Predict the structure.
Amino acid sequence: MTKVQYYTAASLDGFIADADNSLDWLFEVPHSEDDGSRDAFIADIGPLVMGATTYEWIIDRYPEMLSGPERWHEFYDDRPCWVFTHCELTPLSGVEVHFVSGDVRPAYDAMVAARPGRDIWIVGGGDLVGQFDDAGLLDEIHVHLTPVVLGAGAPLLPRRITSSRLRFRGMTHVGQRGQRHPRRVQAGGRRQLSRHPCSSYARATIPVKRATASSPGANGPGRKCGLASPRWTDSHAAQS
Ligand SMILES: NC(=O)c1ccc[n+]([C@@H]2O[C@H](COP(=O)([O-])OP(=O)(O)OC[C@H]3O[C@@H](n4cnc5c(N)ncnc54)[C@H](OP(=O)(O)O)[C@@H]3O)[C@@H](O)[C@H]2O)c1
């Protein structure tokens, strides 16, 4: 059966982007070791699905995606992408991108049909994940928990889902390798560089017992395109 998986990185206080919609804090985290988990995760993935803010963030960061598929392929191979939006967004050159709106279920059916037997990656954001869960279509959460506290921002998953449907399956501490730290310390009268373990992040895998699908389609009231996006403070977030 196709699994719907939310794979993301979050701050300790549960945000996936800061209040300015930035991920600079994430790129600052020392990634001293690649444990191959992303490659292992993406191997079973077919379609990607994301909200408009995530899609626009990707284009802002990698504008070359607008003129050719090379960068997309570098990150995602030839995987197709479904983007939820109320607006007309710019497509990516040479990449299969579907712009959809409203109920997540027709998009889920289309994704399954497009890549039968492959899993689906919800790239972000949190409320879209919540909409999949509302529809009884969320199976797994993979969180890369970073040693960062943001205080505000885009929430990891703005819903109330308790342990009757969530449990930890695994937790891995990634980045144990010692890193040279520039701080000088005095030891036995000699100056030396301190060496201490640098923990990049902890990776948690959390299976989700599917919800009983409730209301037909979590589809917020939209906004006039061209105005500032309400993003995570909009009414989507209130549909728990
Ligand atoms: N930490 C990480 O690893 C990670 C991973 C992914 C994303 N991110 C970041 O996290 C932030 C997430 O942003 P976000 O919380 O605003 O979430 P988002 O899901 O990326 O975007 C939300 C927008 O998607 C559209 N949308 C959502 N559901 C819809 C529906 N059912 N029908 C039509 N349109 C729908 C709406 O846009 P419109 O009404 O404007 O069309 C909504 O404002 C971004 O900054 C992203 O870059 C971080």
